[in-house]
Design brief:
It comes from Thiohalospira halophila DSM 15071. The chain is of the alpha+beta class and 296 residues long. Helix content is 18%, strand content 29%. The strands form four sheets. An eight-stranded antiparallel sheet has the order 13-12-7-8-11-14-16-15. The protein is globular, with a radius of gyration of 20 Å.
Length: 296
Amino acid sequence: MPFHGVPPRRAWLFRPEPAADVAVSDAAAWRLNPAHRWVYNKLELALSQGLIAAPAGVEPREMGLAADEPVFVRPITNLAGMSLGAYPDRAGSVAPPPGSFWSERLVGEQSSTDCLVRDGEALWFAHTVAGDEWVDGRPLYWRVGVERPANEALIAEWVAANLPGYTGITNFEVIGDTIIEAHLRGSNGFYEHYGDDFLPAWVELVDRGHWNGLDPVPGGYILSLFTEEAGPFAVPEGELPSHPGVAIQADTDAAGRPTHGRVAILRSRDLDAGRAALAELAGRMGVPSNTCIRIN
């Protein structure tokens, strides 16, 4: 089982298989990479970039923050959900639960970057950003394949300083010019938008250390159908006849209930086509339309 932690519904995508053991999930990545697993400690990650941060029990005001300054509280390490349980607060009133930490709150665009690395050198990047429409704090869609040269310089410098000896894929969540999360795996939900040569190039890199480059990421959009209902839901997977080119995948558990409130995932090269398919799918399934707010 060279690929470790592959969701069963996504197994078809992970071809060819590498000879090396390669992590797809955070749990597998932590287990397989003892020399670099420290990156899952988000407090150490914050401190590595000079952020004002400390574990529960240390008062923000003792670290120089004013009482009204905003902070953000997150678990120090959580492989089963990463930032589940995170919340904003104020320095003067924050009382983080055990096992969590606070840090100065960041502002700016939030983006996600997958990066192929060879022995601590960043070789290739794929950037994804959330759209400007959100449903209960979650983006209605993600745009895959955007250009973010500032992210590339930031990540390449950080990788060179902190991941010597690591070869494989990584993922970084960035707000503004600061890395807030690092993963020793990629965003496997985005791989369809990276091009047909991505998986073979990744496998060649981890097995033989060879890198011949990749064409620019073709990109596309990933849209979500959310609901607050429990289900069960029968999601028509594949494509709707009226919307060719838009792939539909269920995102429900074994009982047909939504996963984190999401019933279905749609992938499309065109945003308008994806929106139209999303509206038709919601109508056919009897799921109330997503109530969006626009983030300017």
